[in-house]
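Subject: Sanity check before I submit

Could someone independently write out the structure tokens for this chain? I want to compare against mine line by line before I put it in a report. The sequence has 472 residues.
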Amino acid sequence: MQDEEWAPLELVDVVELASGKVTHQLYVWPYGSGQLFEHDKLTPVAMIIQHGFDMDPEQDDLAFRKALAAAYATAEPKLSEHVDFKLDQVSKKATPSESAERAIQKAAIERLRKELGYSKERYRLFDALTKAQQAAVREEYPHLYPYESFHHFENLGIPPYVALGRWAGIDASTPLEQGAPHTRGAWPVWKWLKAAQTKEIDVAKCSAALNKHLPPPTIMAIVWYVTTTVVAGVSPYELWARELDSDRAKNEAAVHMIRLLAAIVDGSGDDAAVELAERAEKHLAKEPTFYLAAVATFALAVRARRRGEPFPTRFYKLAAGANFLGNGSNLRDAIREIFELIPMAERERFLVLYGMYFTAITDEEIVKGRTREVPVLIHAWCVADLVPTEKVAKGLVEDMATWNNYPKPKQAALDIVKKVGPICVPYLETALKTSTSKHKDVLAKALALFAAAPAKATASRSRSGRRGSARG
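---
Independent answer below. Compare away.
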């Protein structure tokens, strides 16, 4: 089904012409992604990544790809996504040794599926598994491929391979596998964090529990490990929520984890946030690292609020780099928590350092099971009302004046312009005269927000006896 603007997932049955038999299902997502499954099977035989069609080398068949490409091109109704079936390429067949290794890996996954079954819990406690299930994990672990598809583990309720050996007690543990008492029995640290990530428990309870049972050096080691061990988007126990479906949900979950780690740091000592910030500055000078500046910055903010102080000037540069969350994510409105702690006289200076970027983008979100794109305002837009200066007014109007194509978050922009105030008026008047934007209407509506108040309404008695009004 095609929904013109939101482009939902498309499901296609692949039918063999000679027999009329359905042989495969092809799922196609917006923006050139998809997977091909054998009919009624759960393991994909091909993937579409950035419009490119890639089959498992063991099953690749050029003749099949040609037939599939022809069918795709002539499907009715027409499919919306372009797919490159790479008809000029022949996949390299795996060597006998590679084939044998893949067969072992496949058998390991199948055994784990049989023993563990599907799990809604993300993730199970290893100690809660039966002895047979524990044995299966330990026996098959050596046969699993480190970069095995994420969903193989996720659906079974076991963590990504990067943490699987430690989770099962096979490899040496990290601070995340340490225990902290819980009313339901001892929980490892990762379970406390995961429960707080999913809001099963609140941030304050998680911070209090960990800080009660673990010394400050261990708390620092936990936070540092969680913040700096994200490799290719995969983190131990997926604490940065890669498993969530939509960009908006992932972004919100990442910000929630940043707030959680910040609270845990501050709960470990009066100056723990300063210690983390100083360490982060040294690390970031050598190597860019997702989340680190944000966690340190928010820990400083928690400390400042607790002490009734402004955000420390010496860490402005660190805070300005806190927006670097990777994978298209940033702090969005959460950065307001930092701006609110900066004296009004210094906010514009900090905003310039942070990045005077007024930008509108689109977010993917899931509504009633369907993916759709929603326009949102980011970067400087998120704090414009907290910095109501000439420079900010000019910047936000200039952004609106250049809006073209695609849906835009008009009402959100109008709400912010109204809060920034009449300082925007001369820039709006100029933009209305010079802009060629396809969304020029938003400029007119913004200017109208500051028009002279209409004449007072006059009241009169209607024939029906009800009161009416005439607007001036």
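---
OP: Matches mine. For the report I'm noting this point. Residues 115 and 133 are 6 Å apart (CA to CA).
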